[in-house]
Amino acid sequence: MDDHPDINAARRDLLIAGALSATAAALPGAAGAQTPGGAPKDARTPAPVLSRVALRVNGQRYDKEVDTRTTLLDLLREHLHLTGTKKGCDQGQCGACTVIADGRRINSCLSLALMHEGADITTIEGLGTPDKLHPLQAAFVKHDGYQCGYCTPGQICSATAMLDEVRRGIPSHVTGDLNARPLLSPMEMRERMSGNICRCGAYSNIIEAIADVAGIAGAEGGKA
After folding, report:
1. Domains of the chain
2. SS3 (DSSP) at 133
């Protein structure tokens, strides 16, 4: 036999009131958070911890005071106003933020600025200028290695360091003979550039541009 409607309504009201009370208890801010002694709790955000970092970027020395949580990417873009380096995924997955740090390509979004005290950083602005393009910049124009252009600075910085890796004999995952100097085949280029994503899909043109600069006979062999 069903309960009386008035009893059901009373039960429902009691459940609602209990849920609201539990929610209020779980949100200290709503009820005025207090310390165990009864004094109001200071809810202000702690002040950031600042530290100085000195480094050389594109041949120029900089000495900046930054929040210790500042990434190298944000130092370049927000503090030094070098906006050629792009913030893409901000999780180290797309490669748009690639720069060259002490000769090695890195994802600047995953690296704290303070980790690069005394480092020598090269960004896309330091590779070439509109009046004097870097060979890879010129090759990207020649082979139409970009569409929207957002990933292009990271692609070019990554390709610059990648070609240097090959010259130094550093193997990749697809290098066949680890005791021999790697050959810059299309497969090697695709593997070594796999950390740089082009959402427009200009991969074949990018490979052609890199192959052209590397002096590989028949850059068409780089087509994906």
Report:
1. 49-127 (3.10.20.30), 128-224 (1.10.150.120)
2. coil
